[in-house]
């Protein structure tokens, strides 16, 4: 019994991203963080642990720097840390296969992750993992409680809050919820530092990390926003109307 | 944009992972909780109680002390905590300095086993607030001539006198008070509510407005016999506390200077005059590079003295140099940053004027700038210049 939480390390949402030679220059990113939606998944998992629902295993897949997000998870209460170490670019199916293999290894039947990662925004990991593992999947949840072998997830539906009851193994993907994310404290940090990280290579899980089916050809910055135009006085009304009609095409 | 602290010589690479994590935790807390609220706190002249609670929850109080529920971090980590808190506001760092270095430390080093067990765990959690009573209305740089007296009444001590400029005084649950017992300076623990003890707040400060500053008044204040700190006599007691607090200030000043530098840099890049960002003008670049130079030197001083605190090879004069230099440079940087901000620099939209006003206090407390020069002068020449022969 317990929860497997999937964490992705992404450039901090406030970090400056620069492009060099058609690629995001990772070396210039000064701050990496746990993807924000994943943090809500982690918070919920720790709340379940505090309510008596077993351990929290934090799993990440990525290069050596990604280990930091596991230590951060340990500092707020994750019990076991698994790092699938790879420097390769992986397509979604490869990521899902690696993470599924790691989840299988834990034996846990409740998986939590963010609804999408802050860098790629693809939103495929949770549902893909559920499909690979044969689990059900409830997406965009803001909270999960577990009672008598059943999980109850809350999510924002089209006409209000939905409460979804789930009986079997399930992947929950998290939206930003109401719960305040906990801060680490010194005691947590000191314990996290001592916590070992199970470092696995893709081969250890019987899965290759080469031959990605998706190849990123090029990165480029979005076009710079054009500066605004300022009009003063009623005499400029005809000009503004003309521009709204001719250039902005809004009237 | 994420806050990127100036770190020109990559001090970051010299830190352990634990030290970096502690720093980032405090940095995030300051970002989330202090910066959005500090101007209100200053305007209202209060230290918000939730800051006390949250600082306690982070577990950073009494950072380098070990045992009795204290964190047991390195002195480098303690320095980083001070740096990040003071990047927010010197008043927040003052709260932590006084609690950790001036109130917890003397109990931890000079207290009885019972005193340590009674006070330290609660103080580490921020549940009990401490203050430190040394300075008096008429005795600041010259604490040795203090007037406050303790009298042994057989079944209790009787304290008489007054202390002034006491950070945390009014909100404190206990005060470590230095008083003369039969002509010798001793430390006493006075609890809030002890008969004959009051701690009125000092109002009207133009500096450290988000920090509580108080008088401590003892009028036939009766305290039990077990409240004396048994293991220290003379000025060595308060001076050992001050060494730790001054060490923390040498880092804290770096944080205030980093904040002022950042604000000046951002402002200079976005402020257009004569058709160009003012950052493109040589006079402004000269100021910014001077700031970078001084902050970098200050960081190296703080880091090195931190390493020496950790391995025990420091001498107090080295701490005097770091405190004096770093506060001096931070104050000059705050003034220069205000200058770069032009008229905007006086607004509370920018942190610089607040840091500037705060640093005027920091320059004076915990050994004035001049007193630290005299400590160094004595070290260099072997001749003390504090007192004149009668």
Question: How would you portray this structure in words?
Answer:
The complex is a heterodimer of chains A (251) and B (390). With 251 residues, chain A is α/β, with parallel strands linked by helices. Chain A has a single domain, classed as HUPs (Rossmann fold, 3-Layer(aba) Sandwich), CATH 3.40.50.620. Chain A has 6 helices and 13 strands. Chain A has helices at residues 36-50, 67-75, 92-106, 125-133, 186-194, 237-246; strands spanning 2-7, 9-11, 19-20, 23-24, 32-34, 55-62, 80-85, 110-114, 136-147, 150-157, 160-166, 170-174, 197-200. The mean pLDDT of chain A is 93. The N and C termini of chain B lie far apart (61 Å). In chain B, strands 3, 4, 5, 6, 7, 8 and 9 form a 7-stranded mixed sheet that branches. Chain B contains 11 helices and 11 strands. In chain B, helix 5 packs antiparallel against helix 7, helix 8 runs antiparallel to helix 9 and helix 9 (316-340) crosses helix 11 (369-381). By secondary structure, chain B is of the alpha+beta class. Chain B has 3 domains: 11-124, Orthogonal Bundle (Butyryl-Coa Dehydrogenase, subunit A, domain 1), CATH 1.10.540; 130-227, Butyryl-CoA Dehydrogenase, subunit A, domain 2 (Beta Barrel); 236-381, Butyryl-CoA Dehydrogenase, subunit A, domain 3 (Up-down Bundle). In chain B, a hairpin with a 2-residue loop joins strand 6 and strand 7 (184-191). Classes of the chains: A alpha/beta (251), B alpha+beta (390).
């Amino acid at each position: 019994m317990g929860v497997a939480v999937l964490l992705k390390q992404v450039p901090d949402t406030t970090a400056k991203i620069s492009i060099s030679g058609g690629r995001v220059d990772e070396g210039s990113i000064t701050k990496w963080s746990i993807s924000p939606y994943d943090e809500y998944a982690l918070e919920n998992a720790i709340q379940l642990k505090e309510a008596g629902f077993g351990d929290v295993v934090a799993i990440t897949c990525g290069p050596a720097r990604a280990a930091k997000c596991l230590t951060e998870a340990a500092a707020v209460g994750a019990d076991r840390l698994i790092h699938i170490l790879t420097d390769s670019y992986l397509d979604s199916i490869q990521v899902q296969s690696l993470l599924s293999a790691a989840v299988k290894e834990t034996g846990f039947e409740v998986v939590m992750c963010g609804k999408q990662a802050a860098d790629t925004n693809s939103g495929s990991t949770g549902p893909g993992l559920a499909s690979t593992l044969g689990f059900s999947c409830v997406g965009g949840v803001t909270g999960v409680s577990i009672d008598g072998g059943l999980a109850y997830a809350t999510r924002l539906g089209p006409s209000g809050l939905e409460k979804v009851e789930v009986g079997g193994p399930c992947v929950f993907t998290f939206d930003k919820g109401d719960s305040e994310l906990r801060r680490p404290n010194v005691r947590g940090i000191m314990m996290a530092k001592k916590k070992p990280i199970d470092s696995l290579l893709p081969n250890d899980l019987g899965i290759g990390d080469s031959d990605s089916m998706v190849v990123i050809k090029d990165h480029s910055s979005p076009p710079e926003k054009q500066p605004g135009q300022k009009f003063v006085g009623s005499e400029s009304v005809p000009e503004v109307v003309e521009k709204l009609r001719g250039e902005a095409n809004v009237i | 944009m994420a806050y990127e602290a100036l770190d020109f010589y990559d001090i970051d690479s010299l830190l352990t992972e634990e030290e970096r994590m502690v720093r980032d935790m405090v940095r995030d807390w300051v970002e989330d909780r202090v910066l959005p609220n500090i101007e209100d706190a200053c305007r209202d002249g209060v230290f918000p109680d939730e800051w006390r609670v949250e600082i306690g929850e982070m577990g950073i109080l009494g950072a380098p002390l070990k045992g009795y529920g204290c964190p047991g971090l390195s002195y480098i980590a303690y320095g980083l905590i001070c740096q990040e808190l003071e990047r927010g506001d010197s008043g927040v760092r003052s709260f932590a300095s006084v609690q950790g270095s001036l109130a917890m430390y003397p109990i931890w080093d000079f207290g009885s086993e019972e005193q340590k067990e009674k006070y330290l765990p609660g103080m580490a959690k921020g549940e009990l607030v401490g203050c430190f009573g040394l300075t008096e209305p008429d005795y600041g740089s010259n604490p040795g001539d203090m007037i406050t007296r303790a009298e042994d009444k057989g079944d209790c001590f009787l304290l008489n006198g007054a202390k002034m400029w006491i950070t945390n005084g009014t909100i404190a649950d206990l005060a470590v008070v230095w008083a003369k017992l039969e002509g010798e300076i001793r430390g006493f623990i006075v609890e809030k509510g002890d008969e004959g003890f009051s701690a009125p707040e000092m109002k009207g400060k133009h500096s450290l407005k988000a920090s509580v500053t108080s008088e401590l008044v003892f009028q036939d204040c009766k305290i039990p016999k077990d409240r004396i700190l048994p293991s220290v006599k003379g000025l060595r007691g308060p001076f050992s506390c001050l060494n730790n607090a001054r060490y923390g200030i040498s880092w804290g000043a770096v944080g205030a200077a980093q904040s002022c530098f950042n604000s000046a840099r951002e402002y200079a890049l976005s402020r257009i005059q004569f058709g160009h960002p003012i950052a493109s003008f040589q006079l402004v670049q000269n100021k910014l590079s001077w700031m970078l130079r001084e902050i970098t030197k200050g960081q190296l001083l703080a880091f090195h003295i931190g390493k020496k605190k950790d391995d025990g090879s420091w001498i107090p004069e080295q701490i005097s140099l770091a405190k004096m230099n770093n506060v001096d440079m931070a104050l000059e940087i705050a003034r220069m940053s205000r200058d770069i901000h032009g008229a905007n620099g006086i607004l509370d939209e920018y942190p610089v004027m607040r840091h500037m006003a705060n640093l005027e206090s920091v320059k004076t407390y915990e050994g004035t700038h001049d007193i630290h020069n005299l400590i160094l002068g004595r070290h260099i020449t072997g001749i003390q210049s504090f007192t004149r022969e009668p």
